[in-house]
Every structure is written in structure tokens, then in C-alpha cells.
Amino acid sequence: MLHPVTAEVTQRIVERSRESRADYLARMEAARGQSPGRGKLSCANWAHAFAASPEGDKQRMRDPAAPNVAIVSAYNDMLSAHQPYERFPAIIKHAAREAGATAQYAGGVPAMCDGVTQGRPGMELSLFSRDVIAMSTAVALTHDAFDAALMLGICDKIVPGLFIGAAAFGHLPVIFVPGGPMTSGISNSEKARVRALYAEGKATRDELLDSEMKSYHGPGTCTFYGTANSNQMMMELSGLHLPGAAFVTPNTPLRDALTAAAPRRALEIRDGTNGYAPFSAVVDEKSLVNAIAGLLATGGSTNHTLHILAMARAAGVRITWEDMDDLSRVTPLIARVYPNGTEDVNAFHAAGGMAFVTRQLLDAGLAHEDVMTVAGPGLRRYQQEPFLDGGRLVWREGPAATLDRDILRPADDPFQAEGGLRLLTGPLGRGVIKTSAVKPEHRIVEAPALVFDDQEALLAAHRRGELNRDFVAVVRFQGPRANGMPELHSLTPALGVQLDKGFKVALVTDGRMSGASGKVPAAIHMTPEAADGGPLARVRDGDVIRLDAEAGRLEIKVEVKELMAREPATGRSSEVGYGRELFGWMRRAAGPADTGACALFEAA
Description:
Blueprint: H1 4-16, H2 18-32, H3 37-40, H4 43-49, H5 55-61, E1 68-73, H6 88-98, E2 102-108, H7 114-117, H8 126-141, E3 148-152, H9 158-167, E4 174-176, H10 188-199, H11 205-215, H12 227-237, H13 253-268, H14 279-282, H15 285-298, H16 304-314, H17 321-328, H18 345-350, H19 353-363, E5 372-373, E6 376-377, E7 384-389, E8 392-397, E9 421-426, E10 429-434, E11 444-452, H20 455-463, E12 471-475, H21 480-483, H22 492-500, E13 505-509, E14 522-527, E15 544-548, E16 553-556, H23 560-565, H24 584-589
């Protein structure tokens, strides 16, 4: 039976979304009624669409009944996660031809890496790259010549952007095609050890670079459980992957078989078949609750407290932080993957992975079984895992018991009784905290504030030795309207060093932290943001702040009347350079963090 809280939260999402969801579905049905695009294109339009295709494809595309699959890809060869996509279009096109169809590379979308831009000006474009990707996906699909679409993307803003763009074409079947994680390098504990030594000035840059190169060493997604791998988990629990596709490593026979299976399955669920399963039917209130349950049960990325809200809105569904907080209070944490544990996603996959997580959530009544997926009706299909039988792709039941209790546990014997996220409220606004990586003894911090208007100011104070004390770092003017809401993950080593020295340390910010948020308690995504009149603009050095992750409270020991009477700080401008001047309209249009910080939708 469904857990009563899961049922209640789902029902209130349905009620809250009734009007917007009905409008979305009506638009998708109208788009469906226009028939496949190529059938209504003029001869000149259609000839343009396949002028450069191989002769065999051209002959097939002359037939108005022959289906055509769109490929939208985030390929580039700078980023390890997306480099494997170079090979995918050829695999997909070959599989489509074998099925009597064609596939076309409809368009590419940008793919920037937060790991490269951490602490750099480019990070101020990162969140808005999600909205650019959504628009780029719409540009690719607006040629209106396709029966289905395959989305090739993995990392932080890329999957949410592809999702939002795909939602605008929700009358089409859409399958997300992952590339898989790189093989494991050095241990995460060793990587963290060298980073901490470097932050203390006890390791050289050459030693740090050598360590990082041994960690990030080949093609595939970074193996820690950050936003990229949380994306893959969510796509499976949303029913948008083929079952078990998320964590199969690149350039292996099984990975290639799953890639070839995606266009074949997309053709089987296109309009006109008995299995028609458009994006708009797969993605609904229940499937989004399933994605949230997976995020909470596995200790996933804090970035999804933004992305899920924006993704849901694209499909006419309204989700709030309160929904996520209520689900977190009843969803046990059943996975520990770095940075919440010591092992990486490859070890998670080997221990039972997504098949085990799906089974546990369904058996505990924490996920909806009665959903449509690209693999067919019902989420139980996703407790199976793929393997090759004489070169043929087949699925079998995944493990019913964990193969490593240090990584995965059953829902009735979890690592902790609640999920990995908590809503924080109080006189400083609303924010979220990732608790799954924070030890219980660090979840309540009360200390004087040290206020910084950018992250470099905090790092400079660290280098000067000014942080050897109990403190709550307030890093403000980092919200979407101020500077694009960059991740502040580069602060983690410095703050972690002070925590390890025995000081009480916490972070409060209207910026983001990271999918790799770790051991330092951090109240993030604070809204209203400082640049939009939020209370953080009035905090001063020495104000005592209390962060209580257990109670979900963020307090300041200053009377509210006195706090709001203070002259607010104004922050610093960072609107030009590194392309930031091109994104001014997005900063001005961005909604608050608690609606997804998206520039594509109205803030309300």
C-alpha cells in the first residue's frame, strides 16, 4: 500500500496543479492531432529536411508512413561525461534503419561543466545554461519532422534543460539515453585528503593536480554522487530511461546495446501504435513524486530542489519545497555514495543499484507503481537490470537483497530514518540543507556571523588565518538575480578545514552549493535573495545565527524589527565579462529559488 504521506503529498500536488496540468495536456493533445510533421510539410520543406541524408535514408524518407526519430545531443569532447556521445548517433541511426525507420541528428545543446568553472566567472552562467539548453532543445524539435525523440545528456543543468525543452513537445515519445560513469579511479577519501592538505598549504599544486587526474581519468560521468548521477537516478524513476540504463560504463558492449535499444523502443511507443507513450503521459504528478523519492532515498543533489520545481512546471505540475520536505520526513536514506559515503556510483551499481532502490521504494509504498514508462506500464519494470545473453540484450530481476550494506540498505533498516534534504525557515527567509552528508553532531550550529559579499572574500579571509574560530559564514548576493546563482563548492575545502579543527562552522547563502555538498552544514538557496530585498542583505558581522537542521529552523538573534530597519547592503556588480553581459535578461527574469530559479516561466 502507498504510504499515507506519499499519497497525501501527491494528491495535494494534483489539486494544486489541476488548472496548469489540464492546460498543458490540452496543448499536447492539440499538437498530437496535427499528425507527424513530415506529413504536413510541403515537398520543398521536407526535401530541405533530408537533402544531406544517405541515399538509402532518402528513399525511405520519401514514404510519409516511415517514422523518423530526432536525436538531440549534448556531445562535446571537452567534458568526460559527454565525450562518449560522439559514437551514439551512428549506433542510433543503424538501429533505426534496421527497424525500418530513420534517425536524424536534429540539434545540439551546450554542455558546460561546473567542475571546470567552480570558483570562476563562468560559473555565473551555469544555472542559466539550463534554460538555454531548454530553448536549444525546442529549436531542434521545432522542425516538426519527428515521430519520437532521444535526449543525449547527463550532467548538471543538461538533463533538466533537455527535460524542460522536451516537455514543450510532450506529444512525442521521449527517451533519455545516458552515457554512463567513468571507471573508478583513486578512492574518494584519498582525493578529499589531498584537497584538504592543499587548502591548508601542505600540498603543492602539482600534488593536487596529480591526485585530481587520478580521480577524473577517462570517458564517462564523474563517479561521485553529484547532480549528474542524481539526474540519471531521476530519469530512471521517472520512467524516461530504459530500465537499468543509468550506470553502465561507456564504450562497453552492454552500453552500446542499450543505446541501440533506445530508438527501437521509441519507435514501438510512437503515435499510431498500441503502446503509444508520449512524454506527457510518462511525466505526471506521480512520476515526479517517484523522482523526488529517489532523490531523498539516495541522498541526491541539492541542485534538484531547484531543477525538479522547474522541470515539473514545464509539464504543468506545481511542486513546492514543502512537498519535498514532507516526503523527506518519511523516506528513509537507503544509500550512502560519496560524498555521503566512501564509495562511488560504480560500487553503488555493483551493490544492487537502481533495481534495488526501485524495489525498496515500491515495497515500502514510497513510490507509485501505477505509472506509464517508456518501457511500458508500471514502475516494477525498473527493478530489473539489463545484461547480454549471447550478444542479445535482455532484462532479469535485479537483486532483492543488498550486496554491500555499507552502500545500500533495505528501507526497513536504513542508514537514517529520513531522507537527505530538509526545508529551513525563519526570519532570514527560506532555504534548504542537505543533511545526508552532515554528521548529526554538526547539524545544529550557533555562532557569530562572518559576512561576505562574494566567495573570494571568504577564501581570502581563510588565507589570512581569520577563520580559526566558531562562525557562520554568510555569503550573500549569490542568488539568481544577483549573479546567476553560482555553485560555491570551492568554499568546501576551506570550511571543512575549520570544521576538522573542532570549530563550529556553517554556511548560509542565497547561492547554490553543489551536488557534491559535503560535511559542512550549509543553508543554501535562501530566498528572498539579498539582491531582491531579502534579509541576508541586512545581516552584519557578529550577529548570532542558529542553524538547526533537525528542527528545520534558521534563526538570527536580532529582533526582526531591528533587522529590517537596518540599511541593506548592495553587493557588487558582476554583469560583464566571460559572456555574462549576454545573460542580463535572464538575471532580471529569473524567478526565486523556491519556484526553480527559472527565467522561462513567470515567478508566481
